[in-house]
Amino acid sequence: MAFDNNVPLAANQIAADLAAVNANWELVARNGANTDITSLGALSGAQTIPTINLTGGQIAFPATAVPSADPNTLDDYEEGYHPVTVTCSTSGSYTVGISTQFAYTKIGRVVHVIGQVEITGATSPVGDIRVSLPFTCATLTHTAELAAGSVILYNHGGTIPNGIHVRLTDAAAYFEFINVADNGLAVILNQGNVDTAWNLGVDLTYIAV
Fold first, then answer.
1. Is 188 in the same domain as 93?
2. pLDDT-derived band of residue 129, with 50, 70 and 90 as boundaries?
3. 3 and 99: one domain?
4. Position 27 in a domain
5. Distance (Å, rounded) from C-alpha 171 to C-alpha 159?
6. 0.85 exceeded by pTM
């Protein structure tokens, strides 16, 4: 179903007409002019509109995303805080103290995470240190999911030359710390590299499933 925008129609008449058809209607702005969605009421189904003017300034997405297979379709947006947990690959964990959350913004599959947390204790940690993320990392071709963000680790009581970096794992909702030694070899940090109390900060963008 199409409306010719050269013929003026009242907003209530358009709403009434749309209510009489199924969800697979199509709205076409034939003269290429901007279309004010708010004047048309709630819309559903497929629409062809050159430009959408959001006079209210907002686009609302559902709390649970409805994934689209179309690479050109935006299907999710979310802002929030992620309560951080820090565990080890074999067993045990660390206590996250005063600062406990990362902030994140998710646009489609792209997730940006920032924040700092304070570790105040440990419970028998054994293995590589793992810091939780709000969403599971995707598995992409050619390991394209392995983003390298910025991370800082301080007050850890040890000596870690050359600094540290983020190491993501596909199909997992955590990151690890990686250190590149003088000989170029990569080493993942474990409980032996830090005390039971330390601080970390992260600025990371990655692709979620």
1. yes
2. very high
3. no
4. yes
5. 31
6. no
CA distances from 27 to 14, 35, 57, 124 (A): 11, 10, 21, 62
Q: Residue 65: inside a domain, yes or no? A: no
Q: How many domains does the chain have?
A: 2
Rounded Cα gap, residues 63 and 83, in angstroms? 18
Q: pLDDT category, 31, cuts 50, 70, 90?
A: very low
Domain range enclosing 26: 1-60
Which of 138 and 181 is assigned the larger pLDDT? 138
Q: Are residues 1 and 100 in the same domain?
A: no
Burial of 166 (0-12, 13-18, 19+ CB in 10 A): buried
Amino acid occupying residue 186 = A
Q: What is the DSSP-derived secondary structure letter of residue 53?
A: E
The CA angle 175-167-161, to the nearest 5 degrees, is 115
